[in-house]
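Input.
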Amino acid sequence: MNRSGFIKPFCSRPFSSGQQLYRHALLTTGSGARFADVTVENGRIISIDGAADGRFETEIDLQGARVLPGVIDPHVHFALPVGNRITVDDFRTGSMKAMLGGTTTVFDFTTPEAGVSLFESVRRRAVEARDALCTVFLHGTVVGWNDRIREQADRCLEMGIASFKFFTAYEESGRRTSYEAIELAAGWAARRNARIIVHAEDQASLVSVDRFPSDAFKYFEMSRPVVAEVTAIQRLAEIQKWTGAMMAIVHVSSGSGAEAAYGSGLYLETCPHYLTLTRDVYCGAIGWQFAVTPPLRSQGEQTALWDAVTDGRIHWIGSDHAPFPAADYMDAGDHFTRTPFGLDGAGTLLSRMIDSGIKTGKLSWERLAELTSENTARFYGLFPDRGTLDVGSRWDAVSIDNDNQIRIQPI
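Output.
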């Protein structure tokens, strides 16, 4: 148990022992930026511009490099089995990509299996997570809700799992949970101080492939229309209001989706691909290389989604990292009913947000720190242990040089 709550890491990034001094750092958090010298001991900040006694194992001059809290990516899928396929990155390779891209903490998911309890799926996933190079927390993935599942979820809380994911779609693969069951789970979560996170696409609003001339990718976005996301978010906003649960919608793909949550108590996550790519790619010769659900949206929806990012309606960014081997996409070709869904992103979350947000003037560095670390830490109960750079916080930090080179600290 850490000082921020009962959430527990299943693998922790190692730190150097002894004291280190980092000089001339431009510390940047959601509350502002300032130049400072930082003293770190055994992985925690013990002083900022405090008296230095000279007993340092290491002294590093950062030469004015901007230092942000390490990225907390709340949405990755390492070694995710889907049918007879599995994502290309295991915990070791996926976490290596994440670390190289400035991410120091990730949240992965358990995988529901027939005949395997929620608690057992957590135990198995925790064993896999030990191979990671960064800190790993886990979400419990849940299908349905009843007394047996509730008892399993209580056991997961004792193990350190504080968040549980539900799907309002994917009925064909047995992953969908009804709104009524999610409401029961949300009521439990509110009483237990747990978090509910939801893949929000309304099953009834999806369009059958039989309605299109073919299953070519140029029809893909129309098969999972924006209205499916909007309808699900509206229903979930009502559930959140009734139960008071801490509830987040993952990978919001559209400005309309963000608008549907306006004024509610829902927290919203989006992903870099929804902010940098549009559905136009599906009409190209390699549209199948951008297979992701929910789909990429129109330019107008993307512009409105950026508005929600800049004005605070979007609370954080997750990568939804879930790439499959290239051969799996190539074998499926231009058929959205046959392809695996998932894009690479664990190693590029921060760099893509710098390119699309900082360099374009859409985001300040302070807002970027909120979106990539602080707000995520607050929602999941990690703040101020993580998500900020203050005395007592972990030195989970990333420096960005003037040439925008990203480096995890400590070096």
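Residues 1-5 have pLDDT under 50 and may be disordered.
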